[in-house]
């Protein structure tokens, strides 16, 4: 059979005897498109001939790519069977251009790998320098020691199980250096948002009583590494939407959410991958009666629309290539800009209406909720809210803020009086509002008071 034709991102090699030539193709594709694929066992004209593939074959390919391509990449290498014949599929991507094959920079033109002249290389580096992406590689204010070791260990195990990295966890410094997320003893900005806690890196989540941003039933803010924020936001959404029960004849009932979980997680991951992290603005999750909105403060690429990536084969445009690459290794995100199409496919399959809204301030993914729950509706099914923060009604928050607006601050005893609650519950509510950065706590012991977050921040002892 004819497998296809070679392109600027696809190369065929008859066998691994042509591995040296394949190394050139990898450099050329990465420098032109930041991604590509190579098959061993297929002739240049597309005829599948196959070859013997052993574990040593795969290991040899991995080691040669690792030693000959700079900066280092971590390709996905698999044995595949095409037309009954064994072949090897190598899939790779990288954004640390330019890439060199044995010290030489190549560029892909049609199905050829051309060597860049010194002047062409200089022009390439100048033309491809992107100020917007440099933020990821700047040294952050967080040390390597600030990285969450448990999270980093889990990440390495997951990425290795996915076959996208080949090393084991040893220690924080070594792993972060291999991932390109550290600068001596400090984390880069990308390393910080991926594996360290920072109060600026957060997601705000709220449930509104109607279809407008007027009265909220619950509001929360959580800060931390990206994956922890994605997990918290996913839990918040899935705990506060409707689920229905389907009986398919099996012993266990099947619970189905009104919005596909895969689409929700994909939208959340995309919101952090494409966020303008340097803006200092928060990601947001807003749950309304008729819809759920997931917002990120990062504008959609100029000149493109979401349909370009759903219906057409546009190349991915990565705002944060280091963050995207790191999450790709752990298989949290897929390569080649498939996020919007994955959301589209999951929602279409579940007959859920969705929309993408391009704002001047960012980008919003909207999932529309069903207005008819039906007899099998089991409600949110879960306990509303949470990321391990005490749920608080909008009425309680409004009473506390109104009292502070009038009197300047509020004590636990005063809050007990206006809320009609016991001391323990009142203290729990005030503590939760501090955690959500709605209030600030000042003073100590019996002198403790609570004020609006940020009020007189430079004049009070916190």
Describe this structure in words.
By secondary structure, the protein is an alpha+beta fold. The protein has four domains: 10-129, Schlafen, AAA domain (Methyltransferase, Cobalt-precorrin-4 Transmethylase, Domain 2, 2-Layer Sandwich), CATH 3.30.950.30; 135-195, no CATH class; 202-368, Heat Shock Protein 90 (2-Layer Sandwich); 394-452, Orthogonal Bundle (Arc Repressor Mutant, subunit A). The chain is 34% helix and 22% strand. The chain has 15 helices and 21 strands. It has helices spanning 19-33, 55-68, 118-128, 131-134, 149-161, 172-178, 189-195, 226-238, 261-273, 306-310, 321-329, 339-349, 394-407, 412-419, 423-435, and strands at residues 10-13, 35-40, 69-70, 76-82, 85-93, 100-101, 104-109, 112-115, 139-143, 182-183, 186-188, 202-208, 216-223, 243-246, 254-257, 283-287, 291-296, 354-358, 363-368, 439-442, 449-452. The protein has a six-stranded mixed β-sheet, with helices on one face. Strands 1-2-5-4 form a four-stranded mixed β-sheet, with helices on one face. A four-stranded antiparallel β-sheet has the order 3-6-7-8. Strand 16 (283-287) and strand 17 form a beta hairpin. Helix 8 (226-238) packs antiparallel against helix 9 and helix 9 (261-273) packs antiparallel against helix 12. The radius of gyration is 26 Å and the shape is elongated. Mean pLDDT is 84; it is low at 373-389 and 456-462.
């Amino acid at each position: 059979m004819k497998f296809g034709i070679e392109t600027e991102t696809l190369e065929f090699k008859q066998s691994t005897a042509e591995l040296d030539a394949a190394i050139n193709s990898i450099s050329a594709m990465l420098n032109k498109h930041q991604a590509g694929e190579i098959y061993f066992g297929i002739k240049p004209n597309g005829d599948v001939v196959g070859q013997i593939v052993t574990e040593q074959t795969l290991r040899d390919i991995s080691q040669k790519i690792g030693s000959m391509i700079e900066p280092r990449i971590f390709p996905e290498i698999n044995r595949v069977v095409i037309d009954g014949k064994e072949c090897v599929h190598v899939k790779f991507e990288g954004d640390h251009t330019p890439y060199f094959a044995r010290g030489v920079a190549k560029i892909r033109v049609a199905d050829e790998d051309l060597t860049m002249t010194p002047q062409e290389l200089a022009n390439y580096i100048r033309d491809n320098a992107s100020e917007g992406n440099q933020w990821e590689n700047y040294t952050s204010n967080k040390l390597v020691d600030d990285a969450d070791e448990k999270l980093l260990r889990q990440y390495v195990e997951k990425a290795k199980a996915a076959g996208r990295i080949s090393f084991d966890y040893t220690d924080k410094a070594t792993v972060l250096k291999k991932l390109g997320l550290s600068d001596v003893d400090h984390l880069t900005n990308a390393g910080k948002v991926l594996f360290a806690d920072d109060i600026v890196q957060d997601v705000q989540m709220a449930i509104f009583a109607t279809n407008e941003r007027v009265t909220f039933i619950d509001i929360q803010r959580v800060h931390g590494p990206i994956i922890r924020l994605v997990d918290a936001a996913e839990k918040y959404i899935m705990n506060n939407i409707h689920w229905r029960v389907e009986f398919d004849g099996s012993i266990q009932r099947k619970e189905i959410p009104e919005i596909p979980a895969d689409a929700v997680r994909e939208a959340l991951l995309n919101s952090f991958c494409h966020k303008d992290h340097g803006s200092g603005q928060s990601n947001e999750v807003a749950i309304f009666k008729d819809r759920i909105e997931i917002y990120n403060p990062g504008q959609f690429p100029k000149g493109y629309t979401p349909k370009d990536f759903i219906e057409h084969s546009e190349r991915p445009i990565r705002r944060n290539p280091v963050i995207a690459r790191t999450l790709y290794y752990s298989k949290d995100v897929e390569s080649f800009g498939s996020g919007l199409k994955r959301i589209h496919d999951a929602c279409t399959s579940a007959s859920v209406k969705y929309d993408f809204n391009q704002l001047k301030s960012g980008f919003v993914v909207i999932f529309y909720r069903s207005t008819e729950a039906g007899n099998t509706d089991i409600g949110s099914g879960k306990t509303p809210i949470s990321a391990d923060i005490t749920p608080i009604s909008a009425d309680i928050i409004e009473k506390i803020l109104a009292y502070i607006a009038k009197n300047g601050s509020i004590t636990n005893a005063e809050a007990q009086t206006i809320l009609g609650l016991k001391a323990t519950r009142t203290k729990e509510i005030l503590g939760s509002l501090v955690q959500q950065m709605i209030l600030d706590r000042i003073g100590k012991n019996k002198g403790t008071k609570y004020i609006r977050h940020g009020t007189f921040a430079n004049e009070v002892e916190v």
